[in-house]
Amino acid sequence: xxxxxxxxxxxxxxxxxxxxxxxxxxxxxxxxxxxxxxxxxxxxxxxxxxxxxxxxxxxxxxxxxxxxxxxxxxxxxxxxxxxxxxxxxxxxxxxxxxxxxxxxxxxxxxxxxxxxxxxxxxxxxxxxxxxxxxxxxxxxxxxxxxxxxxxxxxxxxxxxxxxxxxxxxxxxxxxxxxxxxxxxxxxxxxxxxxxxxxxxxxxxxxxxxxxxxxxxxxxxxxxxxxxxxxxxxxxxxxxxxxxxxxxxxxxxxxxxxxxxxxxxxxxxxxxxxxxxxxxxxxxxxxxxxxxxxxxxxxxxxxxxxxxxxxxxxxxxxxxxxxxxxxxxxxxxxxxxxxxxxxxxxxxxxxxxxxxxxxxxxxxxxxxxxxxxxxxxxxxxxxxxxxxxxxxxxxxxxx
Length: 398
Description:
Blueprint: H1 3-23, H2 25-59, H3 62-78, H4 84-94, H5 98-108, H6 114-123, H7 129-140, H8 144-165, H9 183-196, H10 201-235, H11 238-252, H12 260-268, H13 270-278, H14 284-297, H15 299-310, H16 318-344, H17 365-397
C-alpha cells in the first residue's frame, strides 16, 4: 500500500473517531466505562498473577526445564520447541493475550526462532475458562452446561490450528535433532539459564511486576478504545451496513439475519458480541456457532493487543491472523458436531435447540468465581497499581 494512502487512511480514521466522540459524548462515556469495568474487575486481577509468575519462571529457567522435557511431543505435533508447551498451557489458563506475551518473551530470550514463534503464537492465544464458563455461559446464557461445549470447541479448535500451522514456514524448515526425554539434561538447562540471569532476586521480581503492569495497562487501553469504537460504529449505522453484507453469507449457511449485527460486534469486541448473540431469539445451536467463531477469532480488540506485543519483536502478525480465522472456523464446525453429544443429549430438561434462559447453578464454582472477581477485583487492581508506583518511585530515587 502506498505510504501516502496509509497516511490519509490513518488520519481520516483518527478524525472520524474524534468527531464521533464529540458528537456522542454520552454514549462514548458509557462504552468507555463498560470497557474500564471489564478491565478493572476481571481482566487485570485474573491476568496479573499469571504474568508475574510467567516472568519469574522464565527468569529462573523453569520454562527451559519443561521445554527440554516436552520437546519429544511438542516438536512432532506442532513443530515448535518444548518450551512452547508452557506457553500453550499458560495461554489456556490465563487467557488472551498471554500466549502472545509469553511467545514474545521466549523470542527475546532467543529460546525459539522467528518461524517457530510465528507458529507458536498462532495457536496459544485462547480464552480462559473463567470467561467462557462464568462470563459467557453463566452470565449471558444462564447455563453452565453450555460452558463445557464452548470450552471443548474452543480449545480443541486451537489444537487443530496448531496442527495446521506446523507446516507454516516449510521453506525455512530445518529438521532439528531428535531429542529424548532426559530429566538430567532438563535440570542442567534450568541451572544454566539461572546462572546466565545473574540479577538479584529483588531486581528480577521488580522487573516482573513492572513489565506485567505495563502490559496490562496497554491491554486496558485497547479494551476501552475498542469498546468506544464498537459503540460509535453502531451509532453511525456503519455496523448495520456491514451486517447487510454478511446477511448473504449467513443465508448460505442457513443462519438468520438477526445474528449478523451481534456477529459484527463480536468481530470487534468479544464480550459485547457474545452478549448480543445470547439476547437474540434464534435457536441455541445457531447462537453457539456464532459465539464459537467470535471466541476463536479473538476480536479486533485482542488482535490489536497481540499486534502491539509482537511489534516489540521480529514476529510477524499475519500468521497469527490466519490462525484466528482457522480457529473460528474449526470451533464453529466442532460446535455443530459436538452439540448433540456434549449438550442436548445430557441436558436435564432435554430442550434441544431451544434457547435456555432460566437455567442457573446458583452454587456453581464458576459463577462464584465471577462474583468474587467483581467484588474484590477492583481492590486487587488498585493495590497492584500502587505497588507498581512504589517500585518505580524507589528506582527513580536511587
